[in-house]
Write a structure and sequence with these properties.
- The protein is an alpha/beta fold.
- It folds into two domains: about 100 residues, Winged helix-like DNA-binding domain superfamily/Winged helix DNA-binding domain (Arc Repressor Mutant, subunit A, Orthogonal Bundle); about 200 residues, D-Maltodextrin-Binding Protein, domain 2 (3-Layer(aba) Sandwich).
- Strands 3, 4, 5, 6, 9, 10 and 11 form a seven-stranded mixed β-sheet that branches. Strands 1-2 form a two-stranded antiparallel sheet. A two-stranded parallel sheet has the order 7-8.
- A hairpin with a 2-residue loop joins strand 1 and strand 2.
- The chain is elongated, with a radius of gyration of 33 Å.
- The N terminus is likely disordered.
């Protein structure tokens, strides 16, 4: 009759369920390196008799000899080398897992989900993303550029950690927290060869003779531009192409005499750096248009992951007004 307390042999193909101990893995890995039971025992912090007992328990579990004694120490059998190699890899894998967990705790790695309205995505978010990529290459960042309404929905659905924008006017403000940054300046963008760029005394009223490219009715940027015109005693543009696409807006401005009110940060980016830069210009009129203040919006009372917290800290430092 078999003894139920005896470790199952390797015929079961399951060393862990058979009673394989973590200390035996450490000992086999040390034997692989040192070649003597005494030295291996000392390396893992146990006595030689304790190490000998662990090895004596391990061989019946494996079902085959793991080492051969000789005057200079021990020599691992082929089965012993296989187990020792695997033990070494397993221990290294656990060390790597520990390092990863420490990285998560310290914000050195992880996944950050950040959103932004268009202008701040270039002026605030892009420089921080570059900094994070260089300083913390193990942090993965997902960026969503959209309107504040959509970003707020994504935040409350836990699809974003935070976003740069505004709390929507119609939203219940209680679920949100915001670190204010400031107003978002707006510029009137045209193609470089636009007739008004050649007119030294061009005025805002002159702009109404041309098509405008703006957000659909109700969009924050469009409301801002229209309210600004009305505050100056002017009418709203009579010919408007409505679109939410910044790419289509830039293409239309580049190919026609249309005028587009766009975040100044976006205008500067495409004029100074992008391929269309030499073909676009900002009209020197209405230079004080600005959308209402924006900030870094998060869920009130919600704890950020260490990686997201590190990213937000850098973003706050970037966005803080300079003395």
């Amino acid at each position: 009759m078999s003894n139920p307390d005896r470790p199952r042999s390797s015929a079961t193909g399951d060393l862990v369920r058979g009673g394989l101990k973590f200390s035996q893995l450490r000992l086999m890995s040390a034997l692989r390196e040192h070649g003597r039971i005494g030295a291996a025992a000392s390396h893992v912090g146990m006595t030689q008799p304790a190490a000998s007992r662990l090895l004596a328990q391990l061989e019946p579990l494996v079902g085959t000899p793991l080492y051969i004694r000789h005057p200079r120490g021990i020599e691992l059998t082929e089965a012993g080398r296989i187990l020792a190699d695997q033990a070494t890899e397993t221990l290294k894998g656990l060390d790597r897992a520990h390092q990863k967990m420490e990285g998560l705790k310290g914000g050195m790695r992880g996944h950050v989900r950040v959103g932004s309205v268009t202008g701040p995505s270039l002026e605030q978010l892009l420089p921080v993303q570059r900094e994070v990529r260089l300083a913390y290459p193990e942090i993965e960042v997902t960026v969503q550029v959209d309107t504040s309404d959509r970003l707020a929905e994504a935040l409350l659905a836990d699809n974003l950690d935070f976003y740069i924008g505004r709390v929507p006017d119609a939203a219940d403000a209680r679920p949100f927290a915001i670190d204010m940054i400031g107003p978002e300046p707006i510029s009137l963008l045209v193609r470089l060869a636009h007739p008004l760029t050649r007119k030294s005394d061009a005025t805002l009223r002159d702009c109404l003779d041309y098509d405008w490219v703006m957000q659909p009715p109700g969009g924050l940027l469009r409301r801002t531009a229209e309210n600004y015109l009305l505050s100056k005693g002017l009418s709203v543009p009579s010919r408007v192409v409505s679109t939410t696409s910044i790419l289509f807006t830039l293409a239309l401005v580049n190919e026609t005499n249309a005028i587009a009110p766009i975040a100044s940060a976006v205008c500067r980016f495409f004029i100074e750096r992008a391929a269309l830069g030499s073909r676009l210009a900002i009209l020197p009129v209405a230079e004080d248009i600005a959308v209402e203040d924006f900030g870094i919006v998060s869920r009130a009372g919600a704890a950020l992951t260490p990686a997201a917290d590190r990213f937000m800290t850098l973003l706050r430092a970037r966005s803080r007004p300079q003395d």
